[in-house]
């Protein structure tokens, strides 16, 4: 169906450049945003995305025919990716190893986009030591019908609870419905300790305020509440990475926010792939200075 020609191959692109085919293909039918628009977005934000996205195992949400058609989650290489999409062998539960994907630079991001990737999700550990988590995420999932204000309130409460434990945390709009509270950690503890801490933290909150929070995934138990999804913190789980686009209507993106800014946000989809310039400017400003970085360790809980 797609008739957009490939770039003429008479002058091969310089080594650094990634050729994006079918730039005119509409990936987001609602807003009309194309694969070219998506590639331009990622090329622009690569410098501010890479500090969070580079050198960790990633899962991709690929939608080769656009977000309205079949999309799939991909964590292993099944061929076809460019040379800048790298592989890291990770031990599986059965004792064997599987290759996972990671990227090191802008070319890797763009080669994923060339393969139909819309979303980038990352492990909470880096490729140089996948057994040592360095990032905890509390993914706040509101029940249908809850107000975004409730989500913001929950994020703020979690921030203060974490601060009581000596932990600095950061807020990110997911680009979907919720907010992620991100806790950077110095590696040094096990996945077991990581998961355990996040589970107990979420359970303590839901015990203290059972009408606001739940720590169990069950939709039935979520009625009118916010699910504190701590399951992102298990070995092998991923969370959407800062500045990843989302395969949702309107091409929203996941965006780091200062805590004060969060209070003003009206939805988790406040930014889209059309906002690259704004995002770059923000990222250079004071509010986001140091976002996502803190030298801290898990306390005993
Ligand atoms: P929202 O704010 O709408 O909840 P989200 O990114 O937090 O957006 P969730 O459904 O809560 O979406 O999922 C949390 C995380 O779980 C995702 O960011 C993703 O990394 C991971 N995830 C979601 N679906 C899958 C899946 N099918 N396979 C693997 N991981 C998934
Ligand atoms: Mn979520
Ligand atoms: Mn979730």
Characteristics:
alpha+beta; binds manganese (II) ion; 6 helices; DNA ligase (ATP); globular; 6-stranded mixed beta sheet
Number of strands: 14
Strand content: 15-25%
Main sheet makeup: 6 strands, mixed
Helix content: 25-40%
Q: What are the segments in which pLDDT stays under 50 over at least 5 consecutive residues?
A: none
| Assembly form of the protein | single chain
Distance between the termini: 57 Å
Shape verdict:
globular
Mean pLDDT rating: 94
> Please, how many helices?
6
What's the alpha carbon Rg, rounded to whole Å?
A: 19 Å
Give me the side-by-side strand order of the main sheet: 11-12-8-10-9-14
Ligands bound here? adenosine-5'-triphosphate, manganese (II) ion
Quickly give the structural class.
alpha+beta
Give helix and strand order, one letter per element, not per position.
EEHEEEEHEEHEEHEEEEHH
């Amino acid at each position: 169906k797609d008739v957009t020609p490939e770039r003429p191959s008479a002058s091969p692109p310089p080594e650094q450049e990634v050729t994006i085919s079918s730039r005119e293909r509409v990936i987001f039918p609602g807003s009309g945003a194309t694969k070219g628009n998506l590639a331009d977005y990622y090329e622009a934000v690569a410098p501010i995305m890479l500090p969070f996205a580079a050198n960790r195992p990633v899962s991709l949400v690929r939608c080769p025919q656009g977000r309205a058609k079949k999309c799939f989650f991909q964590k292993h290489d099944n061929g076809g990716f460019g040379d800048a999409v790298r592989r890291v062998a990770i031990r599986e539960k059965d004792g064997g190893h599987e290759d996972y994907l990671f990227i090191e630079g802008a070319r890797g991001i763009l080669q994923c986009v060339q393969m139909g990737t819309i979303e980038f999700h990352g492990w909470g550990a880096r490729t140089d030591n996948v057994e040592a988590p360095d990032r905890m995420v509390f993914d706040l999932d509101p029940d249908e019908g809850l107000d975004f204000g409730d989500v913001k309130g929950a994020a703020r409460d979690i921030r203060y609870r974490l601060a009581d434990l000596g932990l600095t945390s950061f807020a990110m709009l997911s680009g979907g419905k919720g907010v992620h509270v991100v806790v950077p950690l110095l590696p040094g503890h096990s996945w077991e300790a990581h998961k355990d801490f996040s589970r107990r933290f979420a359970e303590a909150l839901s015990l203290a305020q059972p009408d606001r929070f739940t720590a169990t995934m069950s939709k039935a138990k979520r009625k009118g509440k916010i699910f504190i999804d701590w399951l992102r913190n298990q070995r092998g789980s991923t969370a959407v990475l800062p500045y990843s686009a989302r395969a949702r209507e309107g091409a929203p993106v996941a965006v780091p926010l200062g805590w004060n800014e969060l209070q003003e946000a009206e939805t988790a989809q406040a930014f889209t792939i059309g906002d690259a310039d704004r995002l770059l400017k923000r990222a250079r400003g004071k509010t986001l200075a140091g976002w996502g970085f803190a030298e801290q360790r898990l306390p005993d809980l």
